[in-house]
Protein 1
Amino acid sequence: MNNKKFYVTTPIYYATAAPHLGTLYSTLLADVAARWHKVQAIDTFFLTGTDEFGQKVAQAAQQAGKDPKSFVDQFIPAYKDLWKKYLIDYTHFIRTTDDYHVKAVQQWIADLQKKGDIYKGAYEGWYCTPCETFLTEKDFEVGTKNPLCTSCERPTGWVCEPCYFFKLSAYQDVLLQFFQDNPNFITPKERAAEVVSFVRSGLQDVSISRTTISWGVPFPGDEKHVTYVWADALNNYITGVGYGQEGKQADFKKWWPADMQVLGKDIVRFHAVYWPAFLMASGLPLPKQLLVHGWIKMGDYKMSKSRGNSIDPQNLLQSYGADAVRYYLTRQLAITQDGQFSIEDLEQKISSDLANDLGNLLQRTESLALKYDAATLTAPQTWSNTSQALYQASLTMIEQFEKEMERGYFHSALNHVWKFLHESNAYFHNQEPWKLIKTDKAGFLEIISATVHALKTAGILLWPVMPAKMESLFERIGYQFELGKDQVALCKIPWKNTFMLTGGNPLFEKPEEKKETVAPEVTQPVVNYIGIEDLAKVELTVGTIIDCQSIPESDKLLKLSVDLGEAQPRCILSGVKSSYSPEQLIGKQGVFVTNLKPRMMLKKYESQGMMLFVKNQDGQMIFATTEKEVPNGNKLQ
């Protein structure tokens, strides 16, 4: 890494909802990386923000009955507030609707047009609106109807429109050479192998404009087009540090290229193929490392609101505090694979790792020192062999920690800290200072001093992960923690600190003890049970909406024509006009109650069933459907 500066980025998040645990995880990894360099007195820039253009955003805004800019504006405070509560110390929050970003993207496109890397043509193929992704020929079998998106596994839609293309195919060989020359560009290596395989199979030129939507960066020189969201969004990493901005050339030169770009595995293709090619075309250096993490899973499935297995980070914050959640996500979720999340495991780690291994060592050491009037601790002139061994263990641990942090394996780095904490606990226990005080006061003081030195060292390395709690630890032991100094280097010199112990409450509270203390009132929900025979009476059938029309005399109802695998389609009325336009429902597959007694509505329409919907957190109606497309007429089991 460049030891004079460190620039780290997160993905920019779709501004269609409040942040969730997945966005917190990506942002936390970047924050840990940034703080790790700050604690070494390295000048640091940390960029995060929101992706606010594109068809997905426009559709969500329409469903909410708002213009797109007002729609995205409402979510920004939620991001900034949650990041503050979780101690995310970003340098700049970029929004792709910011004027300077829009102008820089337009200039970038104009420059590549002059070079011949962007040309006008026509696109015809399958497109996933939620992921803003075009499928390539390698992504599905020829003849497949509405093939599934490779990222979200939802059905795609056919798009046919004129557009501008970026000559991605021209960069196939140079990309492969770059991957060969920079084997650590993509971490972990499993992700790198996937990218290399994709590029070797052949690259097609990529569409970078749309004519069927208007919510986007206006395409320079052609008012009928807007910039395709990925060509716009990826450029935030350079516009956020001054690219294309008058008077900020020096800032851009200082910070670019990025030292680390954090992202999830579902968007690795865009960042590891499109983004490097864009930079190559622009004559700009490539980022030094892409840190690609896996998904957070609960059981067998990726955590998601649509599946109903997501956890609100606000609730976690209120129950366990920012530092404990930060620790659990950083250590429990290995960067090399998908990670399992469970409340039970979180609580167990808080109790065993934080309260016992770390907090209890501080509590025992302080209590014993204060009991015997040893609040002021001065390092001895010479250390015993046992204490020297603990110091040498700290040096070994720091070296291992630095190596793992350098490559982005934060979970492995924390494992080394905890091995050292176990050694420190064993040192304290085996030396039995509570007995030694009776016969050897100097030996007693040495044990207390060595243990506090060990706690200080662990605290320095854990500060990037748990900044608030470690600063509390420093206050408890009287250590002057200053970010302007290389704190890691100070940990390597022979132990010679003087400490002033103050005592206090436990650093971490065990969840079970907190529950016993608070004893929250639990309200049992009232359940209106039905028998299996009642459920068996309801026929739930999968069908596809083949036509949809607005009913002029109603501000709520849409008239659906539904293929339920029967001889004739059924007419079903649904009160979702405020959430969907007719065009948005045509071609969608949903779940319908098909043995509901037909009823007349508005005195002239007969509704022959009911389509199932659920409200999301914004009060919008979302239609129920199956995970994958199934034949019309299939019954739910």
Protein 2
Amino acid sequence: MLTLNLPESKPLIKAGKQEVLLVTNADLRESANVECWPVQSKFETKLEDALSTRFGYQAKRAHLYKGDKGHGFISSQREGSDLFASIDPQAPVIVLLTAWQYSHHLAPSLAKHRGPVLLLANFDGTWPGLVGMLCMAGTLTSLGKDYARLWSAEFDDEFFFKGLESWLKTGKIVHDTSYLQRVDAKHPAAATPAWAIGRQVGEYVLQHKEIIGLFDSFCMGMINGVFPQKALVDIGMPMESLSQSALLVEMAKVPAALREECLKWYEARGMKFKFGSDPAKDLTRDQVLEQCAMLIAMARFTERFGLSAVGVQYQQGLAQSCAASDFAEGAIGSAERFPIPDEAGKIIRPGKAIPCINEVDMGTAIPQTMLWRLLDSLGLPAETTLHDIRWGSEFAGTFYWDLEISGSVPFAHIKGGIAGATGYRQPAMYFPKGGATIAGQGKAGRLIWARAHYEGTQVVLHIGTAHAVELPAAEFERRRRATTYEWPLLNCTLDGVGRDDLMAGHQSNHITIAYVDEAKLQDVLRAFIAQAITQNIEVLVAGDAADLM
């Protein structure tokens, strides 16, 4: 006879008639959670006030402040799963996000929750919640879950109040996403020579494959950055799964003399490193030498496996084992690069950028590698990178985005190139082993931007154009200090795509960019779209890029 002895379930947490359940999520790293908690506490109070005074609702916190931890965030998948096991599956839930958050803590439970779900973020560059919300939104889209999204700087504007009212009444918020227009092979631009070029590149990819080598995957809870294998195979871009432990082994093989030669090469070209003496809080030469070993090891893996692109998982595990991967990532993604020898002494891909898939995000691996292949085939600069959609604000009457990656970009994307770059120590709250960033001001120029997501196993690509600008020194400094000072920052406008457009329709915390000369922008855009369609990718063109076609 069978005997069942499951753990006892807790009584369900329910929402009353004029109540909503409040849930909040953040980092896996408790040091970051403690640092971010005061901002979360501030916005919880703002939300509670808005709900009660404006709409007669009460916010009922579904989980308690953790006094022993110094914060009230959900900070693991187990904790999030246990929480939702005790929540009434029909209850309305607001997920308030004011910091970076690991979506997998909550997403598996939210995907099965039957009540209305609102993802609510503060629009601020400090930690920031808007990045976390975009990540969770893209994650829930990939899991096929309906949800609403809302954002506000201070939770006191009419946009915020109207959105909140709509969700309280209907469980939905309808945003205008008409800035996105579907494009297929019947578009009039299909008759242009540029389209034919793009089709040829797409056919080449399908035949020969662009293999994307990733040292582990699933960085920082980004379910939206982990694509089904079938989705990658269908577009001719399969993954080579590598282990970060193997990367550490390969790094150990790099002799000290070669590490020194590498670092001196960059110093000779003018890169500045902010060295100090205390490795616990300062950047040290030994940390950068270890990053040089990683750069060399990554290139050797790329050559050994015939990879088109390479990426490092970057956070958990590796960050506890060695210096951060940032310098290695930015350097390998640059055409102007230290001549890296393979084991036999042959220089690996001289003068060629090797696309670096930051944070092993497959949603950026796809457009980065596609753009690299297209631009390189056309004899154009082919450096690509991702950025966080970190923040944005007005200057002189124009809204400029602050796009910021957590540590590195190709040198060609920085004003002044290698000589314009500064290596700061990665913040200790994230990277106990240190390591240099590649920081600097993003150079002015024209951009193509893109982002891939998936629906089922169908890859969908948003494509647009942008203007990168070099803001005045004082304004640039203000924005650096409002975000993360040690990281590279690019300011831009997205052509025909406003702040609230992107927040309403973008399916990721990341955006991919490549610089393209103004005179060639239209042709490259057409070719890129044709390449994507040929590779079985569904294409949505954003804003003014539709007119440029």
Protein 3
Amino acid sequence: MVSTLMKVPTRVGKRAHDAARHYRQAGFWRGRSLGAELADTCVRRGEAAALLEGDRVLSFAALHDRVRALAAGLGAAGIGPGDAVAYQLPNWWEATVTLLATVSLGARSIPIVPILRAREVGMILAETRPRVVVVPGRHRRADYVPLFQAAYEESGLGTEAAPLLVVARAEKEPKGGTTFEALLESGAAAPVPIAGAEVDPGDVAVVIYTSGSTAAPKGAMHSHETLGAELRSLGAVHPLGDADRVLMPSPVTHISGVVHAILAPALLGTSAVLMDQWQPARALELIERHRVTYMIGAPTFLQEMLAQPDLERHDLSSLRLFSCGGASVPAELMRVARARLPGLVTKRVYGSSEFPTISTTDAHDAVTRGLDTEGRALPGVEIRICDEDGRRLPPRQEGEIRARGPDCFLGYVDARLDAETFDAEGFLRTGDLGVLDEDGYLTVTGRAKDIIVRKGEKISAREVEDLIATHPAVAEVAVVPVGDAETGERACACIRLAPGAEAPSLESLVDFLRERDLTPQKLPERLVVRDDLPRAPSGKVHKKLLREEVERHLAEGRPGR
């Protein structure tokens, strides 16, 4: 089968190849595949725990055996370098084994977030043309076999291109496919080595699909080199090693889950506690029971844990780091966390599916600059702030954030997207607005398109959200524009209440913001109180959907809740 994915992103031209040569010479790219790194780690860590899922504990030795067995099973099914293997699995150990076995063969792993349904999954299948698709039998009352079949019909690929369907934890043998257990068992008799000697580390290893909060999902291609550089940088900055254990409630099909729950154990020797479903009370139990040392994720995870009434009854002394990213991070939230959990370093991190970590602070800088900035560029990463014409701006001036570095992705599966994504010098155009100070600390101020245009004046939603987030009744806030015949757009504050809080009125919220010197033109003119906010698969607020829902409800004269 011919894949639409490319071996090397030659389309981005000579400048990209010059950059690759620089990263190799500087030591950021080391010429080793993920499989080679995994083999070394598993031998070194032996019987230490690699993955903990419910009552299951998988040692590095056992992980090594299962990856080798599954690689053999996939190899017997004809999977080799250049082929694609997709998986739409929850936070189960099978997801880790699938990704690692796939990349060890030199094939491309395509993680698909479990909440996506037929239309979006069909788009991903059509674009990546996987030869194998791994799904759960049932998960959260959804039957994934008919879901896959519907998605494949949506893809329009036809029966000749149909991939092998592999079902994990199946209740019965799938028609026309096989079970994960059977494929694993078939390869156990003759497991393949995973040293990765025949795998080109410059090849595409993983294609991460963006959450699609503003558009259709886009497939970001990462190589063994880009992901290896990401893990080594994080290991040095945080630092992360054998003694560390992450609690991972984010999907292991999302960039943070792939990096911290799958690749960090494989390359750095950490271990991962997998949560199949987010429950803040359960999270506290797992941190205490498994002596979790760090977490990374959306600020809602931290916020909901701090809101648990029995927080002080748990021994959370092992938790040393919580790195917040993926959404607007209120400084007040992190101050509260530091006050209530002494010894915990809370800080912000900035990255994306395309560029997993652009900037952050180390443990020392986090104390002074981790509350109000996203930190400084990781080693080897360059950050620029540019105006609308791409000209570089001086410190303290707001503009678009652009970045390039060894852990930046190679390009999109759909090559047509690359021209508007990279500038002439190979910098990724993030679409985010930010400011750099004289010392290189970055502050993200909002999305280039996350603005409200009121009578021609542009209002940053992020600025208003950060102030509203300090209101004691507010657990979470998103500010979106709503159409208005007189002004063009007006700012609408959509809030989720803190537990037990009484909803503020629009008038009282405006008074609260006036007391904090928010410019009058930026004050929200509508208020919507909701039980929850719609979310993209990453956990971020889905602002496009939220705006559509709010405008529809306002047009129908329905209440905000």
Protein 4
Amino acid sequence: MLRVSFFISTLFSAALLLAQNLTIDTLKASYKTRGILDSLDVHSQPYALPFALFGFTEFPSDQLVTEESQGLFLSPSSEKRIIFTALPHIGFGYTFGQQGTQLLTANYQQSISKLVVLNAEVFQNQSNGFQRNSAHKQLSYKFLMRILNSRIRNISSIEYSNLSTNWSGGLISDSLLEVLPQDLISVNKDNAFSRHLRVQYANNSRYSFSRNTDLKFGTELNMDYSVFKRFYYEEGDLNNIYSLITIDSTETADSIYFNRIHSSLGVFYESGKLKFSSHFCLSDWQSRTVGRQLDTTELSLDYYLEFKPKYCQFTSKGMYGLYGNFSSILIDNELYIGMNAARIRMYSLYSRIPPSPFIRDFRANNLDYTLPLLSLQQNIKLGIDFNYRKSIFSAQLGGEYWHSKNAYFFDSTAWSMQFPQAISALKVNLNTNLNSRRFVVQIGYNFTSLPNEILYIPQHRISARLAVKTGLFKEGRLKTILGMDAHYLSAFKRLEYSPVMGTFNISSLIQQEILAGYYSLGAFANFSVNQFRFFVRFDNIPFLWIDKKTEIISRYYYPTTQFKIGITWDFWN
């Protein structure tokens, strides 16, 4: 019945062209696919080190022990930002290099008429692995359509993502690393791979009772339907790898299925400096693993508040669970204060969130567990950022404290509250940027304080990017940037990864020793002629002389040098 009502409501909202309170932006003439020339090559850096296989653009990350880690398998949908452009725009970028690296980006925006705006994005990233049998391929696309008139605004979106990864499980032994390349050394898993598929459809609608552009109030109806599927396959003598075999000792073929319907109905009010909206939200989700199923209906209340007087802006958003979700609560506040060249941002987050369905109950060929009692993970986050920008110089100084309690961690066989005591951390970061007509100098420093027993994030991280701007050929028409960047990480514990569950084994960190850190060096050259731009990049230079047994993640070692070439082109009508 709920699915029928969802279908009818979606058709009804589309027919009335109701609308959505989402971010609306205008495409600037200076917009460039994959960013400005100074950082054109940066998008390819994650694909130089193994952590790209694990879904990180920057690693290590504190999200493994905060509330974000509860979304097991369920990658969050991307930001729904609709871009308006009077002229049609098409942007294209393609990067390829060693280790099978291929990174494809394409985006399209066009205002068909005063009423209709279309946006589309396509991404495809892949690599054949940093070790044998660790291939990686990701395809995703997003399509958005906005329909607008004086009272009505409707934004519909469709998102699709497909992620395929071949898992090696790391090298069996590092004894031969000094004499043989990694792709000739035996791995723990010769034939193991996972597939993730996610499809999401959303229709977010708004109807204003007032035609006054300075004062708007009315109703909002938001509908969202998503499907997630995961498949994990592995061959071999599984008795030698796993302590539990529930189905087959020679082959694993685990399937996971999750679908969710989410709808919200509420009101909004906008007048000058003030915006407010609130909704009653209804969710119905189902999850299935081998022979087991969970089915739950949840009701909650959310709100969004924005107050924007002169020189500052305050936003607050939150959610409270009314039924079916253990009285969950989330409150997220931000305050911006800006005057002239300086800006201060202060923020806070408080949440009490239940574990995701696959943490609660899971059955597969090598896993079988059910949480006897569910506890809410509690998170508190407090932070402040100071930003200064004037002429060619900018700087950012920030600090953050977070506190997590009742977190569930995977211990290779099940999820448990391995750390019933609270986990606290302190983060400080400093970044400076000098960008003149001839030089680019960027220096960053990050300090992170974690308990020593789970010190998987280095206390000290330093990054630097130095470049020279010049021009080649007649009158310097070929704009050129030549430079190098470096990263240093101090000592930390190496995380272990479980491909079967698709997560890190945080609990094993207690028995791990703290290992020496490492550094990386890269060189790049970026070029531009009108709208056409291209770059070359050389990564992992220290591989030529460092210890080949330097681990990035447990049993995933420092990869070989990597050369990449990339192009981008923005087409304007």
